Amino acid sequence: MSGGRKLRAGLIGLGAMGRNHARVLSGLDGVELVGVVDPAGDVTGTLRAPVVPELDDLLALGIDYAVVACPTALHEKIGLELARNGVGALIEKPLAQSVEAASRLVEAFETAGLVAGVGHIERYNPALQNLRVRLEAGELGEVFQVVTRRQGPFPHRIADVGVVMDLATHDIDLTSWVTGQEYTSVSARTVSRSGRLHEDMVAVVGQLADGTMVNHLVNWLSPLKERSTVVTGDKGCFVADTLTADLTFYANAAIDTEWEALRAFRGVAEGDMVRYAIPKREPLLVEHERFRDAVEGKESDIVTLRQGLRTVQVAAALLQSAGDGSTIQVGKMTSPDAMQSVGRP
């Protein structure tokens, strides 16, 4: 970006998430929101940028990058068109609804040499950012287990994917990211209780490359809204609540006990509990700032399309496992067919 020119950004999709993107883009330093694509027009009545019906209309306005917040099933088509036109893209998670579609998007943007990323917003949650720094610093010692719980009422806006692609992709990405480890195997069970085509509840057991055990419980059938990540290790456990962006550490006690019955028990004892004071900036704003910096050519921490593809690959393995009752070995990410299944009778 030369001479202080603002980046020209476009937005595709004005659903619940799209409206949030529009709000953030409208006030983002160094960026001008020049147009929005949505067949329904300006449903908010608050946008200063023109709302156009087709992607071609947006491209005609001249944009440096676009935020793709339309339904997942349209990500591939829209993304490939943007890549063909030399436009970078921040694509909402999941990157695409299949490994094959996600792979084609990776190839298109990499071949065109364009900046592209995936909107895995949990990476920008203050509690998880703080947790990652502490894990990297070895504050937990060896990590034994990561457990996530993500549940709440059914989001009626979602029609084209189930909880695995819509919600569990958050947990897959954040688990890999905070631990710095890839998944090596997964096993999952799903149920459909809401009368919809897709699954609405999933339970996952998995393993990361360093042997860390992983559990994910995800559903949109609960009136209780919960978003928690618990990481247990040598020195205690961290609990991140991503709804409130709170991070708490429960330490293993280092106090000798004189009680003979307890001394014989070789487990851990309850120690100090610390709740950290963390600056709480809006994750979506931080995500946009990082992506803007990347488009400007600055060093920036964005979720790459390859990382987004990896998450889709693990999610596809969950669905495959739930479908046939097997444990799936998730191979190193080289190609869409890098997964093979074990444990079948």
Automatic annotation (TrEMBL):
Domain GFO/IDH/MocA-like oxidoreductase: from-to ranges: 129-238
Biological classification of the source: Bacteria, Bacillati, Actinomycetota, Actinomycetes, Micromonosporales
Protein's name according to its UniProt entry: Predicted dehydrogenase
Species of origin: Micromonospora eburnea
A single MF term (Gene Ontology): nucleotide binding
Boundaries of every Gfo/Idh/MocA-like oxidoreductase N-terminal domain copy: 8-120
